[in-house]
Fold:
Amino acid sequence: MLRQLRPVLINGVSLVATFAIVYVLMRLGIIDSFYQDTIALVCINIVLAVSLNLIVGFTGQFSLGHAGFMALGAYTTALVTLHFPTVWGMLGGIVLGALIAAAIGFLIGLPTLRLRGDYLAIATLGMAEIIRVLMQNFTFTGGASGLFPNRYLNWTWMFILTAGSVVLIANYIRSRAGRESIAVRENEIAAESIGVNTTKAKTLAFVVGAFFGGVAGGMYGSYFYWIVPKTFSFMMSFNILVIVVLGGLGSISGSVIAAILLGVVNVLLADPNLVPIRMILYSLILIILMVFRPQGLMGDKELSIRLFRSILPKRRRPPDEGLEPSNEGWLETPEVAA
Amino acid sequence: MSDTATIGKDILTMANVTLNFGGLSAVSDVDMKLQVGELVGLIGPNGAGKTSIFNLLTGVYPPTSGKVEFTRDHKVRNLGGMKPHAICWAGVGRTFQNIRLFRALPVIDNVMIALQHNVPYSLANAFLHTFGYGRAEKQIREESLELLRIMGLEEDANELAQNLPYGKQRRLEIARAMATHPVLLLLDEPAAGMNPAETADLTELIGWLRKEYDLTILLIEHDMSLVMDVCERIYVLDHGVIIASGTPAEIQHNPAVIEAYLGEEVADA
Structure:
């Protein structure tokens, strides 16, 4: 029992520790408002990347429409908080926005998920652009000048929403529904032959991904004081895809690490001297990373203690077994008769 | 599950089944009957349409015309208009000629994905990983390991499927098909690429599976020793047409079969 609970405990302790450290640093004023904005963006990018990874990395459906779901979440949350200016208004708005994103995801997914590869990418890209253009032309969304909601998202709620989304998506992937998604990615014909309803599996993954894309949008809409349609252009979808590919298709921890890494890179490149060549450096870093890790930072592995053990197999060996270390391990010394 | 009352009854009936691809006729006017508990072979030269018949039976292609009926527990279903996954749930399992495993996944995951008949938890449980989820997952894992043990793959449980040798990949495909709890199992060249010793092992295993799980088996195979050994009846297909059917002994001496395999004797050369 204790053995089974250990990973849960380790995850829980590291989550609480992360929350507490950032909280204390914020209270002490070491993390100023610039870094707070960066942390907020990193959190939003984590939710966006992990939810897109469910669609692209785990289910193998190439979607370029995540900015659309994000826009739905952001606008819904902003409109709700403008009418109910409380923290509960924000939470209600985020849930409502996520549900709307999921519903639109269902309507879009049902016909388009029959398409494969590039065709699906173009269809979802079109969907996101339609949502953006609608936001730009409706009067209740403020048109091109957008909406000006207040900030209700503090670090506590930001952390709960981010960690909660990641944990829920990770649980989904490690269930029957997640296994069906992976089966669809690996071989659709074989998946059908063992009873996987591939249309349903794809649609469900798409809807769940859209839901959490909406959550991320809601976080955006309740943190940054100004939301405009042009934020949710196809460049946003590409940026999310970059994080997913950089972290590794099919690795949740990879998406989290990549989102944090890109946040750090952005902070480093914010130096005024670097501003003129900022985008060049940013692109160069991406190119270099992809040349040396084409499968992404994590590949399709997850960050775990077991992974560390497999990387360092012999150094962790207990001292009581094997007295001649030179005879074992990766040096491959030929065996000597005792 | 079949019981004594259903033995001798038809489980699968194909009547006047035709499959056309444009102007090309892959299968034409095929009649075939399988009885509960039988082990039937389907042989024929390359390109005769054997795999097309499997694809018809599993819903990959709907038949152009004709009737495909599957009977289980006195309930008759027309497989003609059903989706592949629905046919699997009805009780038809299959393997593929060109192995279609989930190559990048561990061996045990290949079986666990297929073991869906006893997943009692809902989507909400899956999101929250409740205790009900934990119990069910443990059970699925144990049953998968049991299937791997039967197929002689338990030591490879955590190996990636693509790293297995060819013969074991074929066994894993059978394990995965068995995980869907079929009553009718379609095996597409299960012994292809195996050496004689592996083929003998597999022959024994197929016979054992059939007894243990009350299976009806339809088998495509080029290895004549396997076909003649285990099959009770054989259908011979050539150019999409059934040219002969009967016991192995009858088939071996059927002139039409010999002609299809060896070619016609040129009389006036």
User: Anything to note?
Assistant: Strands of chain B lie at 10-21, 24-35, 39-43, 65-72, 75-78, 92-94, 184-188, 216-220, 233-238, 241-246. Chain B has two domains: 1-91+181-269, 103-180. The interface with chain A takes residues 58-60, 83-85, 88-89, 93-94, 96, 100-105, 109, 112-114, 116, 119, 121, 123, 125-129, 133-134, 137, 176-177, 179-180 of chain B (CB under 8 Å).
